[in-house]
Amino acid sequence: QVRLVESGGGWVQAGGSLRLSCAASGTIFSINDMDWYRQAPGKKRELVARITSSGSENYADSVKGRFTISRDNAKNTAYLQMNSLKPEDTAVYYCYLRGVLWGQGTTVTVSS
Question: Which of the two ends of the chain, N or C, has the fewest CB atoms closer than 10 A to its terminal CB?
Answer without folding.
Answer: N
